[in-house]
Write a structure and sequence with these properties.
Layout (H helix, E strand, L loop, with lengths): L8 H5 L27 H10 L4 H11 L10 H30 L2
Length: 107
């Protein structure tokens, strides 16, 4: 390792550069592989397909809450969006059921 390069933030303020890693770093090639489902990932694909089959939102929410995105952090936003969609769908269904029950009890 080159001793002239510093990773200290104080030296960086003085005008010295900080080395962040090079081509020998194995982390760089980790996400070169495209995401599944035409490159949009499981989360966004589940969000889009959930408008036809809402069960997909719950599947993606399950993956989100059990930290599937630790395998690939690029999946996190899509899985989170699907979890929000599942929550909104659940609240909507609950409100609809409550209104139907109240209307049936008070004709």
């Amino acid at each position: 390792m080159d001793q002239r390069l510093s990773t200290d933030a104080v030296n960086h303020k003085n005008g010295n550069y900080v080395r962040i890693g090079g081509p020998e770093d194995p982390e760089l090639g980790m996400f070169d592989k495209p995401l599944p489902f035409c490159g949009c990932g499981i989360g966004w694909f589940s969000l889009l397909l959930g408008f036809v089959f809402p069960v997909m939102w719950y599947y993606a929410a399950f993956l989100y809450f059990y930290k599937y995105y630790d395998k690939d952090p690029r999946e996190r936003s899509g899985l989170g969006a699907s979890a929000v969609a599942a929550s909104v769908c659940t609240i909507g269904v609950l409100i609809a059921v409550i209104v139907i029950v109240i209307k049936s009890l008070h004709p």
